[in-house]
Write a structure and sequence with these properties.
The structure holds two protein chains of two kinds. Chain A is an all-alpha fold. Helix content of chain A is 67%, strand content 0%. The longest helix of chain A has 23 residues. Chain B is built from five helices and no strands. Classes of the chains: A mainly alpha, B mainly alpha. Chains A and B meet through helix 2, helix 3, helix 5, helix 6 and helix 8 of A and helix 1, helix 2 and helix 3 of B.
Chain lengths: 174, 109
């Protein structure tokens, strides 16, 4: 099943090259920011249920990632999974709300994040990461498990629970 | 196709469906929810123009180019915050005078 839209990961070799370049090159850093803002933003939209909060948190995540590019492992992990790992760490520190942002609210499709929250509730890390890696990045379920350092069973359970929530919400809405 | 009865089996069967396999008969009524969830994640995609705008505004996110004349209108200035100082390139730049600065000093009597 192809990814939903918009984002497609590079090969791990290309991502490693991009990460190394972005550590010292402004154009590469901006390219990394612009390419990977999408999945990070979607992740935060699922976690926060707010477009504005998601934008701020995504900026904070990418800022942290750009500071820590030297830590990006050269072990075949995809950059998007590493970024979501950093997002989780920032959420654990509860510092996302204080992230620097831009002055005006985002011009993203308003309502999508809020609708996600209505259907799913505020997703936890495992669920949000699984949904992004599965539906936005197009990984297989086993790849999602590997990229997130989880088991296939836990990943399947997270996806199953998310689908079940949407199913119940749809039934209630009918 | 095997029978799907427990939650664990349903999770496995749905995972196989998400990976492109046929959906088990018992789970047919899950298909609309999968489509809806997929659509939901799709709708969460940010506007590319907005992302580009953010990228251009957040100069402090990226190390500044060090080559002479390599700077675009986006280079220069550290923006509203001082995070640029955390980058290796920014740190090197802080220690190394820019070519423009060196030229200015040479011009001084």
């Amino acid at each position: 099943m192809p990814p939903a839209s918009g984002f497609s990961p590079l090969s791990t070799a290309q991502e490693l090259e991009l990460a190394r370049a972005a550590a010292t090159d402004a154009a590469a850093a901006r390219a990394l920011f612009e390419r990977y803002f999408d999945p990070v933003y979607r992740y935060w939209a699922l976690r926060t249920g707010s477009a504005v909060a998601a934008e701020r948190a995504a900026i904070a995540t990418l800022e942290a990632a750009l500071r820590r590019l030297g830590e990006f492992p050269s072990t075949g992990l995809h950059l998007v999974a590493w970024l979501l790992h950093i997002a989780r760490q920032s959420a654990d520190r509860s510092d996302a709300s204080g992230a620097p942002g831009v002055s005006e609210p985002g011009a993203f499709q308003r309502g999508a994040a809020e609708r996600a929250a209505a259907l799913l509730g505020r997703a936890d890390h495992r669920t949000a990461a699984a949904l992004i890696l599965k539906f936005a990045a197009g990984f297989s379920v086993s790849e999602v498990a590997r990229e997130t350092g989880s088991t296939q069973e836990r990943t399947r359970a997270a996806l199953y629970r998310a689908i079940g929530k949407v199913r119940r919400a749809m039934e209630c809405g009918e | 196709m095997r029978r799907v009865t427990t939650a664990r089996e349903r999770a496995l069967a749905l995972a196989e469906f998400l990976d492109g396999n046929p959906l088990a008969e018992e789970l047919r009524d899950f298909a609309p929810a999968v489509r809806e969830l997929r659509r939901l994640v799709e709708e969460l995609a940010p506007d590319p123009e907005r992302v580009a705008l953010l990228g251009s505004k957040l100069r402090w996110l990226v190390p500044q180019p060090t080559a002479t004349g390599a700077g675009s209108s986006d280079s220069g200035g550290s923006g509203a915050t001082s995070s640029a100082g955390s980058f290796p390139a920014a740190a090197r730049r802080a220690k190394t005078p820019s070519p423009r600065g060196q030229a200015a000093r040479r011009e001084k009597p």
